[in-house]
Amino acid sequence: MTADNPILNPEEFIQWKKSMGQVKMTVVPRRVIFIPESLHSRRIKWSGSSLKGVGACLTCTSKETGTYVASKWGVGAPALLSVSELLRGLGATHFVLLGFAGHLNSPSSPNRVYYASSAHSEVGTSFHYAPEGELLFQPTTDLVKLATEELSLKGAKLISTDAPFRETLSKYTHWKSLGAEMIDMEIAALYSFAAFYQLSAIGIVAGADYITPSGWRPPESLAQSVSNLKSILHKLLAT
Fold it and tell me: Which pLDDT band holds residue 46 (cuts at 50, 70, 90)?
């Protein structure tokens, strides 16, 4: 073991959980789509196969491609990467995160869906996967191609934060100086995780609330944002 190798690695932890009968699956995961619980729909045609024991509700939607939809995985970067590490240990190589993001401006289409073309990190989890001082992370080119060509999405620059209730005016001014357009809690960490392990990852978000110098504003139509994001999920499941 070198100084940079983890003392506990996901593969070892999974083998222990399997020996305890806590990890159960019939289809090896290859592609995982993380969704908020509001997107889970009974109208989606599930395969019936599930994956248990990794800290989320995972249902297989394609045995041929090893695609799973993950819900109830938690909130924030630590929760997302804890599940992602175990899924990587089981064989997953492609990670797609669907979620909601706050606006840092006033767009003409507030419920529109974007892919995160970059994510500036203020989440501590990302620093465990990135070189010291690295703060800006990007999605992988294969999934950017999917987002732009097959899903017809435009990119938006994001900030990822651990502390949604510490979004201060001074921070807002700094984020705007970086060119940020939206804010979320996980995507920078997901991108740093993918870069570290040379995996594929992309974050896709629908606009929700507003963070502005004059204060916070709730979403204008959260139901429309949910509907727009659900449409993207169905398109992803068809690819």
Answer: low
Helix/strand/coil for 209: strand
By DSSP bridging, strand 154-161 and strand 57-62 are unpaired
- Say if CB 103 and CB 110 are below 8 A apart: yes
| Helix 187-197 vs helix 77-90: crossing angle, to nearest 10 | 30
- Per the DSSP assignment, residues forming a β-bridge with 122 are 161
Residues, the chain, total? 239
Q: What is the spatial distance between Cα 184 and Cα 103, in angstroms, rounded to a whole number?
A: 9
**What distance in Å separates the CA atoms of residue 202 and residue 148, rounded to the nearest whole number?**
12
Is the predicted pLDDT of residue 41 greater than 80, yes or no? Answer: no
Does the predicted model carry a pTM greater than 0.85?
yes
Kind of pairing between the strands at 31-34 and 67-71: parallel
In the three-class reduction of DSSP (H, G, I as helix; E, B as strand; rest coil), residue 217 is classed as strand
pLDDT in tens, 108-121: 788 999 999 999 99
CB–CB of 49/60 below 8 Å?
yes
Three-class SS state of 118 = strand
Sketch out the chain's domains with CATH numbers: 10-237 (3.40.50.1580)
Q: 35 with 70: CB under 8 angstroms?
A: yes
Residues 114-170: tens digit of each pLDDT: 999 999 999 999 999 999 889 999 999 999 999 999 999 999 999 999 999 999 999
Q: How far apart are CA 225 and CA 207, in angstroms?
A: 6
Task: List, in sequence order, every residue forming a beta bridge with 156; answer none if it has no partner.
Answer: 116
